[in-house]
């Protein structure tokens, strides 16, 4: 074989140069035979699959190495490392980290230093080229990892991403239009912020434009579950400012109305709390008895819910005939219902587990937040305005003040159960001791006269007209009076500059103070405990958004 034949073969393969193949311009000056560089075996090998013709092409570099050194293009034969790619499939070339980038640098290699004969024999690794990586390299993409990596054993739960959840304002467990902004870590309450004001009506500002008697219906809308007790607290504040004393029969009637309102309110609170915890039977029992009470109130006042029965200086009218007998019949039947509810709930394992140790409110914390009423007494504070600062004729009655020990939801439930029994004791004594006499104070210029007198006598008609249009003549001054309402201490702070309209009025609503303790009570509890805590507090949003 002569050295000219390889050149002839190279000419035949010249058109097979792929795009981007290294040109022979850098090596043209020293080598007169230009076609030889175009036979770059590594370049042609990239476009030819590992077939028998490729093996012949692989042998070309060996033959070219036998030619004289001046006739061989140095850049092409100097680094024939891509030779393994000649026999390897294109997919097998991808894993090789070194061969891929080197063809780009072949044309830039030092062209002035021709390789020696031993280096030209570098294609010796060619027999190893058919040994590519195992077919595993050509396998599809590896399977994705599991979505959640397994937690290492022995690690404790760490705080995750916290979530903000709005509970309410349209929610049955919030007992009204209350919105609680909950910050949760999983199901644990990290922080709770009560947001009130969705039922705002501006009662305190409205009072500055109404006479004292005209504001009585607005007190019905404060705690709309015990409107008669609200009426009593308000008129007692005005009468304290006027230094007005009502007759004994009027005082007894007011006590009867207040204790009936207490029982009706506790029945709603107890039934709603039990319903929130899935005890529907108790809800039916309590509302059945409440309907009987509302029927008695309707016969007494003429209204079933918003009664507006009290007046400054007395009550709207006297008790109708036969009403006391109906009340006594109710008082005789009612204790059996309380005992039935006691058997259903007090030792019920589910009810006890949902309430004992939940929502604990220590007595010091309760006092700091201004909590009053059954919620305060459930925390172990024996404070009842009917005992501590007796008003009306409460000093004439014998009753006990129930007090809790732990201050949890279960204690608050027990306190309300016992308070209904004590209210029944007071009502029975009031019915037995009810005196005769007038139901209004004998102050014709400040107290509305009886309706039959206003329609038959001129002087009473004039007084009636003046009191209705201008209001009672209240002296200048300021006063505060608090009454023991079913939800706690309901107080009225009145500032008067004289005349029949208050200059300023501030209402101290017990539910508003109770809700201020929610961030303390809910923190650290589960979402499922919120229903039990809210039900045990027994608040009403009407007096919060006053």
Draw up the topology in text.
Blueprint lengths: L3 H9 L28 H7 L4 H15 L7 H5 L5 H4 L2 H4 L8 H5 L10 H4 L42 E5 L11 E7 L2 E8 L7 H4 L9 H5 L6 H16 L5 H29 L3 H22 L8 E2 L2 E2 L7 H23 L3 H7 L7 H7 L4 H5 L6 H4 L20 H25 L17 H4 L3 H13 L6 E9 L2 E9 L7 E5 L1 H6 L2 H5 L4 H11 L3 H4 L2
Antiparallel strand pairs: 1-2, 2-3, 4-5, 6-7, 7-8
Task: Jot down its keywords.
single chain, 546 residues, mainly alpha, three-stranded antiparallel beta sheet, 9% strand, disordered N terminus
Description:
The termini are far apart. This protein has a three-stranded antiparallel β-sheet. The longest helix is centred in the middle third of the chain and has 29 residues, at 248-276. 45% of the residues lie in helices and 9% in strands. Mean pLDDT is 80; it is low at 1-123. It is globular, with a radius of gyration of 48 Å. By secondary structure, the protein is mainly alpha-helical.
- The shape is globular
The rounded distance between the terminal residues' Cα atoms is 115 Å
Broad structural category:
mainly alpha
Estimate the strand proportion: 5-15%
Question: Biggest β-sheet, characterized?
Answer: 3 strands, antiparallel
How many helical stretches? 25
Number of strands: 8
Q: Which spans have pLDDT < 50 for at least 5 consecutive residues?
A: 1-123
Report helical residue fraction: 40-55%
Strand ordering within the main sheet? 1-2-3
| Backbone CA Rg | 48 Å
Mean pLDDT: 80
